[in-house]
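Re-run with default settings, no changes from the original entry. Doing this only to confirm the output is reproducible before filing.
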Amino acid sequence: MKKYILLLITPLVLVGCAKGVIPIPDMVYPERNSNIYSEESYGLYPQEYKTILKNYLMNKLPYPDDARVEFVNKPGKLSINQLGNTYTGYRVCLSINARNQKNIFTGYKTHLFIIKDGVVSLHLFDSGLLKIPFELCVEVDDTKSILIDEIDTESTIDKMDDVIIRDIPKQDSNIRDIFLSCIVDETERTFVFNENKQSFYEAIGLDKLNYSVKFSKTHIFASNEERDEILINRVSGTTTFTRDSKISEGKCSLLDQTKF
């Protein structure tokens, strides 16, 4: 009986001692390292940083398929100290809303990545014991700061917030008509589409046969009232024509302009 009593009491004593010896951890903050390093210390600029982070998150997140991601900034040189270690490379911050191990969305949280020579060497995110300081995700320009005494109290809020916005000319990609020459059943057919205008038609002599159209990055799907359907692979140029349940395969070539 005494042995059983001792076994029951001993764990309680250990737990009580542990609470007195091991302190409850406080909030942890990674800190910016103010040391000056050579250009080589940061590694190569990650030109493919979006691909690097995409592949990393696909492997690390429990449920990556429906995670929502927003890029906070572009890569910038940064060296930080975290739990006694120093990490130097290019910093990218993301705001991510993903499901945790319990299959529950956590809400948007700040994630900080250090990329060096194409590899994520550090990944930190806001959690119960870790907080990503705002200053680590932005480049602060001290030359734009002023003293409190220098605040212009005469200006109204409206004038202080006035910002001159210059018109940026729109890119002309996908605005012009694109011509397709398609061979199906040894017959040449000419199509014209304009993704910006969501238009697609077949040129038959001087006439047009209009189609309803849907565009994706890889395919064009067009159909008309006669239940003709055209599916064009934008990558390979292979084409499937369907009329009255008869399916024919063809090949389309992209022409930048008419020949004459």
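Residues 24-139 form one domain. Helices lie at 2-21, 49-60, 157-160.
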